[in-house]
Amino acid sequence: MFNNLSEKLDKALHVLKGHGSITEVNVAETLKEVRRALLDADVNFKIAKEFTNRVKEKALGQNVLTSLQPGQLMVKLVKDELTELMGGDVEGLNLTGTPSIILMSGLQGSGKTTFSGKLANYLKNKKTKKPLLVACDVYRPAAVDQLHVVGDQIKVEVFSDKGNTDPVAIAQAGIAHAKANGHNVVIIDTAGRLAVDEAMMTEISNIHKAIQPQETLFVVDSMTGQDAVNTAKAFNDVLNFDGVILTKLDGDTRGGAAISIKSVVNKPIKFIGTGEKMEAIDVFYPSRMADRILGMGDVVSLVERAQEQFDEEEARKLQKKIAKNQFGFDDFLKQIQQIKKMGNMKDLIGMIPGAGKMMKNIDIDDDAFKGIEAIIHSMTPQERTNPSIINASRKKRIGKGSGTSVQEVNQLLKQFNQMSKMMKMMQGGGGKRMMNAMKN
Ligand code: GDP
């Protein structure tokens, strides 16, 4: 996420870190580089200029020049300003209605349908919410089918009316259906076009007026940079929406949209989409995002994601197994699946402070576990519980079956063996013994 921008800002701020003495000249030089980095990230010129002016004002006001650690103070000032620009505080959804109605708007391909599913899933997992998805795209039957596929996947009901050509009527019928069937949230997915046009605006505006949603969300593809900002403006003029959803932040996004959009439409970014999977949704925290942009990682979000996937019951079972020395490859597979649910690897690594920078040139395969999983799947159930019975000819077969080499099979078995030993030692409270084992 935002690799290029992070790298350039880091370089710009490094100028100051390296210098023993700070002068007005090198503060100006640094900020010039910061501005260039922002412009390269497709941040609007005016916004970038105001940004650096404000940082400069604060820097001079706070006596960066005489501060003991001016480099760090500058990083802090830039971070605070980035946070402010992206929205300051976090703003949640207004879910006060009975049912609460959420209307999705945005261009075709922005990720509306995918996000509708993600949001339904997110709310459903909150336990107190029973969402209903409503398909209001009357032009593309495929879009309606897509929402049904999403609904099936996350086990959320989808309301649609395929022959009906009136999106307002469908939305209203959807809400009535929700009321009659105990749904307390209705998420309405609408039709988009490839570009802003009058017919689309009239249609979404009519739906908006008729159903009076508590939340109107504008979904935008962050890869589209300044275009994203212009589209946001057009939709906001008509809908006066409540929040922005930035999708596709997992891609090679330059960052311009995330940084500029709030100050142009004066509406908060509420969620971000970070992948195609239903779990790839995050609440948008301006301050955490600023940390990530400045390469400081985002440990809080990382821990939260881990917690979301954490199953206490499973953890207890696992602990018992480890204590009894019964941790097998099936348990290992489960662990891998949990990690995978947390998001794509590159994204996760980017959340570890400093790691994003270190790993930036290393291509991390999102299917990093594929080989390991294939090897485990090629083992018999007995072999998975007791890998020591795997002999040389079985290793060959497993290699063949999984499309890997005997060496790879051996390596996995060896690592698994080491891991099991270490787990046993940790269980025995032998921290010292573990350290010794690691040394050997
Ligand atoms: P809609 O036309 O606005 O409903 O857009 P869709 O929901 O159909 O999304 C368009 C494409 O973008 C699909 O291929 C989605 O899988 C993909 N997509 C949506 N959100 C994300 C995201 O956060 N990250 C990535 N990488 N792809 C996404």
UniProtKB/TrEMBL annotation:
<feature type="binding site">
    <location>
        <begin position="189"/>
        <end position="193"/>
    </location>
    <ligand>
        <name>GTP</name>
    </ligand>
</feature>
<dbReference type="InterPro" id="IPR004780">
    <property type="entry name" value="SRP"/>
</dbReference>
<dbReference type="Pfam" id="PF00448">
    <property type="entry name" value="SRP54"/>
</dbReference>
<feature type="binding site">
    <location>
        <begin position="106"/>
        <end position="113"/>
    </location>
    <ligand>
        <name>GTP</name>
    </ligand>
</feature>
<dbReference type="InterPro" id="IPR022941">
    <property type="entry name" value="SRP54"/>
</dbReference>
<dbReference type="InterPro" id="IPR042101">
    <property type="entry name" value="SRP54_N_sf"/>
</dbReference>
<protein>
    <recommendedName>
        <fullName>Signal recognition particle protein</fullName>
        <ecNumber>3.6.5.4</ecNumber>
    </recommendedName>
</protein>
<comment type="similarity">
    <text>Belongs to the GTP-binding SRP family. SRP54 subfamily.</text>
</comment>
<dbReference type="InterPro" id="IPR003593">
    <property type="entry name" value="AAA+_ATPase"/>
</dbReference>
<dbReference type="InterPro" id="IPR000897">
    <property type="entry name" value="SRP54_GTPase_dom"/>
</dbReference>
<keyword id="KW-0378">Hydrolase</keyword>
<keyword id="KW-0963">Cytoplasm</keyword>
<keyword id="KW-0694">RNA-binding</keyword>
<feature type="domain" description="SRP54-type proteins GTP-binding">
    <location>
        <begin position="268"/>
        <end position="281"/>
    </location>
</feature>
<keyword id="KW-0687">Ribonucleoprotein</keyword>
<comment type="function">
    <text>Involved in targeting and insertion of nascent membrane proteins into the cytoplasmic membrane. Binds to the hydrophobic signal sequence of the ribosome-nascent chain (RNC) as it emerges from the ribosomes. The SRP-RNC complex is then targeted to the cytoplasmic membrane where it interacts with the SRP receptor FtsY.</text>
</comment>
<dbReference type="InterPro" id="IPR027417">
    <property type="entry name" value="P-loop_NTPase"/>
</dbReference>
<dbReference type="Pfam" id="PF02978">
    <property type="entry name" value="SRP_SPB"/>
</dbReference>
<dbReference type="InterPro" id="IPR036891">
    <property type="entry name" value="Signal_recog_part_SRP54_M_sf"/>
</dbReference>
<feature type="binding site">
    <location>
        <begin position="247"/>
        <end position="250"/>
    </location>
    <ligand>
        <name>GTP</name>
    </ligand>
</feature>
<keyword id="KW-0733">Signal recognition particle</keyword>
<keyword id="KW-0547">Nucleotide-binding</keyword>
<keyword id="KW-0342">GTP-binding</keyword>
<comment type="subunit">
    <text>Part of the signal recognition particle protein translocation system, which is composed of SRP and FtsY.</text>
</comment>
<dbReference type="Pfam" id="PF02881">
    <property type="entry name" value="SRP54_N"/>
</dbReference>
<dbReference type="InterPro" id="IPR004125">
    <property type="entry name" value="Signal_recog_particle_SRP54_M"/>
</dbReference>
<dbReference type="InterPro" id="IPR013822">
    <property type="entry name" value="Signal_recog_particl_SRP54_hlx"/>
</dbReference>
